[in-house]
Amino acid sequence: MSSSESSEQKQYFSTELLSWYRRHKRDLPWRRSRNPYHIWVSEIMLQQTRVDTVIPYFNRFMDKFPTVAALAEAPEDEVLKAWEGLGYYSRARNLQSAVREVQERYGGVVPDTKEEVASLKGVGPYTTGAILSIAYNKPEPAVDGNVMRVLSRYFLIEDDIMKGSTRVSMEKLAQELIPEGAAGDFNQGLMELGALVCTPKSPSCLTCPVMAHCAGRAAGMEESLPVKTKAKPPRPERRYAVVIEGAAEHAGRVLIRQRPAEGLLARLWELPHAAVPTAPAAAEARGEGGDPAAAHAALAAHLAGDGLGLGPVGWLMQAEHTFSHIRWEMDVYTGRLEEASALLLPVPLPPHYRWVNREEMEQYAFPNVFLRILNAYFGR
Ligand code: SF4
């Protein structure tokens, strides 16, 4: 690529993309204002999540927490509940703790300098660029995987986009491309082109506003770019879970518990579950009907740690949940607690356990996999 071609190609890209975006942009709720708080929340929600999924969550979240102050003051459990189903819950926790910092340190006004925005919890280089450019129209690049895909194709860049050095050079390129005074619209145009036209599979080059100068397309490489080394697939982890059914005054309820304050899915609610002890051999036996004796042994040993005894269990269903690095493959059973003694006294519950029925479930935030199991259980 000679330097004159390069600058003409860049100029063309910037001009055409900006005018295309202004004509074709989708009407999305967070685009109706330049409120930095709205932009921030939307960008956090949109990480790893599709626009269509985010829209109702964003609207509900803004009804509930319309301002920085409202989110800063809200109990964390309410925020997690509003996030329920979006996954990656650390995003919600980091967002709230950063919003609290904005409330305390900046009087509730989202700051407008790169240093201050980038120092907020959970706000990486992409989100920093998005907030500064969209809300404040500052010429900062906002480069994520979608943007790197578009730039790799248009400029025929064959560097591995999983490498940090590629991201740095893409950020430099993206910054050079920003037309004067139009950072917000240009960055959104890049994201929009990646979402609607220059899609991961089968890009719609024939309707693309920058096709005339797209080097990747000219070389017939639009489908093979970007170069991306494969991330490691999530490691399967087999687990037994149990829906413990209540009796007597807890009839119609099931037992849930809260996860610890730190670590995976922190503070969310779940059904008791335990790892399958010898996964490789047991994996072969996985199937409808499960292995109630093995499941009982593992779950009973696990619950004994909380002072609870478990009666016999029966098969309910299978369920799966994929995190970025682990995939839980669950065999789910139903069962009851054993009474504490021959006097049939009710078992005292540890403080992080609750009995809930279908309505009471609504007050607690669950990871998707447990919501699916509980909905299937109560919907039987
Ligand atoms: S022409 Fe095709 S490959 Fe090039 S930017 Fe447009 S959609 Fe992407």
UniProtKB/TrEMBL annotation:
The membrane-spanning stretches of this chain are none
Q: How is the cofactor bound?
A: Binds 1 [4Fe-4S] cluster.
Show the InterPro entries listed in the entry. Answer: A/G_AdeGlyc_MutY, DNA_glycosylase, HhH-GPD_domain, HhH_base_excis_C, HhH_motif, MIG/MutY, MutY_C, NUDIX_hydrolase-like_dom_sf
Spell out the coiled coil positions from the record. none
Q: Does the keyword 4Fe-4S apply?
A: yes
Q: What EC number(s) is this enzyme filed under?
A: 3.2.2.31
Give the catalysed reaction(s), semicolon-separated. Hydrolyzes free adenine bases from 7,8-dihydro-8-oxoguanine:adenine mismatched double-stranded DNA, leaving an apurinic site
Keywords per UniProt: 4Fe-4S, DNA damage, DNA repair, Glycosidase, Hydrolase, Iron, Iron-sulfur, Metal-binding
Q: Which cofactor does it need?
A: [4Fe-4S] cluster
- Enumerate the spans annotated as HhH-GPD domain: 45-196
Q: Which function does this protein serve?
A: Adenine glycosylase active on G-A mispairs.
Family classification? Belongs to the Nth/MutY family.
For this entry, the protein name equals Adenine DNA glycosylase
> Gene of origin?
mutY
